[in-house]
Amino acid sequence: MKRGCNMGEVVRRGYVPSDSKEFNEAALQILNNAGEDLYYLLNRNYKIKGASTFIGNHYMLSERQRLALVRAISSQVDLEIRKMKECQSPIEEVNIDGFNTIITLEVALSGSLLVKGMDGTIRDLAGLRGTYRLIDKTRIAIQYLLETLEEKGIKKAHIFLDAPVSNSGRLKQLILEMSEAYPLEVRVEVINEVDAVLSGLKGVVSSDAIILNKCESWINLNASIIEEKIPSSWCIDFCN
User: Fold this and answer.
1) Is the pLDDT at 3 greater than 60, yes or no?
2) Which of 89, 111, 125, 148 has the fewest other C-beta atoms within 10 Å?
């Protein structure tokens, strides 16, 4: 089986035309200031929802700009928790947040906006909210995922897909078909409550902040894939 091919019409996952204006150089200067203020409030135990609303109103940010801040900024306590749990040495088995991982790669391949959070993870702003369909970027996203697992010496990958999300069954079949070309043991499971399951596991691949805070250990695989295989992606860096 070929390791990569196209699928259907060309679709830009997560593309919003106004992003070019709302995240231009001038806007990013404002966002960086807003990020510093949000970080300050989070470190004083303000809840993210109320703090981001206050900061967003103060700087007159758009909804997309506010979402970018929420995805990127974390309290120092949360950053320390995630850093402590991040796998630094090679591991052989991973548990993957399927939609979280593949959608972010599709967004990167689409040239749409990504944010690199303070914890080093890369997140998208696609917000599909339960509606998903396979696009022309899906195969290459899966290919890059499987290639990277092989390159990192990972032997087993358990991929979890959210049952309530549309086309989860089709995505499962595509992953399994493509995995046959790789020397990996790949299992794909379509279940409810993916977040809850991953929160109790180790070797987790996800950028979901709640999962990262609760899981036993995690690996920052998406950042590796995007930085190594999709270097031309559009990513705003809040990490430094």
Assistant:
1) no
2) 89
